[in-house]
Description:
Radius of gyration: 22 Å
Oligomer: single chain
Number of strands: 17
Largest sheet: 7 strands, antiparallel
Strand order of the largest sheet: 14-11-13-12-16-17-15
Helix content: 25-40%
Amino acid sequence: MKRRTLLQAGTGLAATSVAVATGCGTTTGRAAGASSAAGAAGGGTAQATTASHAAGRATEAGWTALGKSLDGQLIRASDAAYAAARRLYNTRYDTLKPSAVAYVKHPSDIAECLAFARRYETPVAIRSGGHSYAGWSSGNGRLIIDVSALAKVGAPSGGITRIGAGAKLIDVYQGLAAHGVTIPGGSCPTVGISGLTLGGGHGVVSRAYGLTCDSLVGATVVTADGKTVDCEAKHHSDLFWALRGAGNGNFGVVTELRFRTHPAPRAVMAYLTWPWAKAAKVVDSWQKWGPVQADEIWSACHLDARPGGTPGVSVAAFSLGTKDDLQNALDKLADQPGGPGPAKSVRVTPIGYLDAMESYAGCSSKSSAQCHTPGSLPGQNGAGKLGRETYAARSHFYDRSLPTAGIQAMLQQIERGGRQGVAGNVALTALGGAVNRVGRTDTAFVHRGSRFLAQYLASWPEKGSPGSRTAWLNAFHDAMRRYASGAAYQNYTDPGLTDWKSAYYGAAADRLAQVKKAYDPQRLFSTFPQAL
């Protein structure tokens, strides 16, 4: 079953991909995550990502020389591997044709690519997992610097682990689980750790452990001038501050990230559904309940548009505490005054931490090798069984609970989507806890006062037309704007935003502009529409 298909009840939680807002943008309940860019709204906005970019003044001799200078592989359009190398996770961007893809092996390879880009005025794109919702980790005529080969997950030492920028989330979880630890992150197994981290990164343990970027203690970056810089709280502190939330590709090419690790104990997963007639009460009760639970309890509320059928409403929950504690908390969700009452179906299942992450990744029945996309290029696996998907998404942060009118507007949009034949959803993910105990401008991720994050999403078959789907998505986003805070999640990059700088960065925007000027004065990394 594709990860974006609507959830089908299975025989147990461990065998069912139950989660919520995701880095893959699924309509299934899956754990929250993010990727290297994110959030294309569709319609006319998609044209910005497919607009042709000149390949600069590079000659065939220049490209040949670049290929020979790299220890990694440079793939051109004439190479057999080009068709696979140029593809992103989202099939919407299969028409993009970069000039070349460089699978770099070390910082010196990156420096060579950046020197080439400066010399020949060739636009670059940086790619980790290739999950850019907006298609901005590729582009026509660009030199893609792909860091997938930098994928080592180091054994923790002194509570710190070193992870290569191209490591995929499933490999991070599995590598760290062998040592009984983890870092907070999303659920999409093939998302790259660097893209996730640089835009914030949220998931099922964020209320307990903070965002992915909150566990970052240092990073190695190749800057626009080709220099390798190690940054941390006391060294290049301005760059370190910016890397925690400003998104991928603004200041340099990250090669390694250093994280503080956290315990990975046994956990509890839960999944509840109610009849659609109770959807308004479910949303109202959840929004009052989810953001104020104990830190160890994460939850998300899902509303699913089902073409030609009755919409679905569900709540997924995850806890690092006991089964009894989570069960008691869920009882309070259902039974609070004005609440929805007992759920139609309930599953509460104790589970090992790694088993939970594999379940959210849709990989419970797959081997480690199979939980990758197939292929022989870096970041792929010959035994991989995971496919790609076709979708568009937008987002809002909510600083206050929705009023009755806001809840009704949300339900009406879901019902309208089903009548229009749209497969889509909204996933409301609870924030609070450790996420909101970080100062608003202590990092470049400024959304620290929000109660929950909404991701609106539409998906369709690979060869299908986006037209009616993206029109519904944009109408949904427009209908909810008046109730939201005015902010959007930078890892769900949204080309439809006219006020993107304020929506993503708020009070951090001016300081980010200063960091940009210091580390990329010639704006080598400013070749995508929402570059700082």
